[in-house]
Structures are given as C-alpha cells and as structure tokens.
Amino acid sequence: MRWLLGCVVVFFATQALILLSAVPAGAAPSYMVGTWFGHGQRGDQGAMYIDRMRADGSWRGEYRSCIKGKPVDQVNTGRWSLQGDILTLQVESANGLPMSYTDPYKMLMHSAKAQKYLSLTYNFPFSPQRVADDFQMPSCELIS
Fold this sequence. Notes:
Structural class: alpha+beta
Oligomer: single chain
Mean pLDDT: 83
CATH topology: Lipocalin
Strand content: over 45%
CATH architecture: Beta Barrel
Number of helices: 2
Shape: globular
CATH class: Mainly Beta
Number of strands: 9
Largest sheet: 9 strands, antiparallel
C-alpha cells in the first residue's frame, strides 16, 4: 500500500513539474493583462487612450484627441513586456501601416484597478484605470 501511495505521489509531483515548466519564463504578469483607460498625452492633456494588454504579449493602443469637438484617432499595435519595473511597448504598426519603435516606461504604482507609470522617453506620467475589456473610447462630445 505504501508503495502504491508513493507511486501516486511521484506521478502527481511529476505532472505538476511538467505543468510548471510549460509556463514560459517571460510569461506576461497577469496583473498587467486587461484593458486600461487614461487621459492625457504629452502636449495634449485632453487626449484619451486605451491600452489593451493581452496575455500573449500582444498590445493594442487606441488614442483620441479632440480638435474642435471632432475626434482624431490613432491605433498602434505591437508587443509588450515587463522586466522588473520597466514596461516596454514595441510598436509594430500605426493605423495599419508598418512602424517600428520602442517606448519604455517606469512602473511607479500598480494595483488591481489603477496604474501609474512614467514615459522614460518624454518624462510624462500616465495614470490609467482598469476598465471592462469591451470598453470603447468616449466621444468628444462627452468630454468637451
């Protein structure tokens, strides 16, 4: 009986080890995954943005400036990663056209509902709030 119990324990320990080793070392931290909405961009405090951070490391940034009550939108896509307290957005496209640049940010604060990070390129702070994944950009009329 002890032998059988030992075999069962070894079997389950082996399965757990296999499952743990299947998680990539650079797997996305789950607290970053989700949809984040914020206000303000460098040079445009009234701008809005949505960052959609996916568990597979892909990212979609939606940006809206309101000029004379009319929306001016841009969509960037690419990859994101977090190493320590440095969030990196690798932009691969802007409005569907190929684009290649990297934006590094220093994470200053993070909770389940809010973040604060600083653009290391422009020394500009961002403070998005977590929103539902189906959240859509507000219209310019709502913020004017």
